[in-house]
Amino acid sequence: INLSAGITFVLLGFSEYPQLQVPLFLVFLAVYTVSVVGNLGMIVIIRINPKLHTPMYFFLRHLSFLDFCYSSVTTPKLLEILVVDTRTISYVGCMMQFFFGCTLVITEMFMLAVMAYDQFAAVCNPLLYKVAMSPKLCSLLFAGTYTWGGMCSLTITRSLLELSFCNSNIIHHFGCEYSAIVSASCSDSYSQMICFIISTLNEMCSFMIILASYIFLIVTIIKLPSAGGLRKAFSTCASHLTAITIFHGVILLLYCVPNSRSSWLFIKFATVLYTVVIPMLNPFIYSLRNDDVKETIRRLVNTKMFSHPM
Asked: What InterPro entries does this protein map onto (predicted)?
């Protein structure tokens, strides 16, 4: 039995800057609101437009769902500790927040890799695209990413449950992020090794899928005879490449930061990027560069405007 199970953690958040609590609350609330509206909006837009019922938008819809869930796992608690004096979270609540957050990050990592393969299939075999990316295969890939994310997260969370928290219940973070939990622990555990192995394996595997897909894709694009086809192919991939660069860039940045007292503030702000900001950016990245999505938004706005009674 883990004797630490009854502990209540104190989340320091950004308490070292009391004068910034209200401005940060307003900024994060605005970003979270835009993120929720943007991601749920993308899901609705893809759902109602038959032209968007393709494999690419099937995965994009699930990416929006992941972003909505991920921002909702961490941001509400962040907003809470910015405005209340009691910045606490229970042991069970902390482990649940970590489990769901970790599951969603790993799932999104492989969802982006699956989307890279989808881009490869769309550009390299356009005539056989719908056959190659059949509804059954899309469903299997979708189920596989969620299952793998859950299994990896469960393994890491179980290793965290073996940690002991002797005299310190203070977490130098706004949420139950892995390095912050381990820093508060007073026990030696193989948890760090487990997390390092799983994280490295996932990052390498997803990156190799993306790299292989884009190598074949670029070779195909170079061989395209017409400039119009070349431009269309690059336009198709630009949004996905932007999303991948931001997502993996921030994660790799966190990998490179040493887990020390001097880097805690940097870790917090870097975590804000992929827990709060990236889920808000993805709907804009995909919608602003996509004519079908923009056309659906225009039609919805025009319908609302003209149907509104004068």
From this structure: GPCR_Rhodpsn, GPCR_Rhodpsn_7TM, Olfact_rcpt
Q: Are strands 88-90 and 170-171 parallel, antiparallel or unpaired?
A: unpaired
pLDDT of residue 260: 56
For tokens 């719908």, what's the residue?
130
Q: pLDDT category, 231, cuts 50, 70, 90?
A: low
Q: Which phi and psi (to 5°) does residue 150 adopt?
A: -65, -40
Q: Please tell me the distance from the alpha carbon of residue 178 to that of residue 158, in angstroms, as a whole number.
A: 12
Mean pLDDT score across all residues of the chain: 83
pTM comes to 0.87
Q: Which burial class, exposed, middle or buried, applies to 291 when counting CB atoms under 10 A from its CB (0-12, 13-18, 19+)?
A: exposed
Phi, psi of 7 (to 5 degrees): -75, 150
Tell me which residue has tokens 């992020």: 177
List, as one string, the DSSP characters of the chain.
--GGGG-EEEE-TTTT-GGGHHHHHHHHHHHHHHHHHHHHHHHHHHHH-GGG-SHHHHHHHHHHHHHHHHHHHHHHHHHHHHH-S--EEEHHHHHHHHHHHHHHHHHHHHHHHHHHHHHHHHHH-GGGHHHHT-HHHHHHHHHHHHHHHHHHHHHHHHHHTT---SS--EESSSS--HHHHHHH--S--THHHHHHHHHHHHHHHHHHHHHHHHHHHHHHHHH-SSHHHHHHHHHHHHHHHHHHHHHHHHHHHHHHS--SGGGHHHHHHHHHIIIIIHHHHHHHHHHHT-HHHHHHHHHHHHHHHHHS--
Encoded tokens for 20: 């910034």
Give backbone dihedrals phi and psi of 189, rounded to 5 degrees, phi first.
-145, 160
Q: Which of 73-77, 82-86, 173-177, 238-242 has the highest mean pLDDT?
A: 73-77
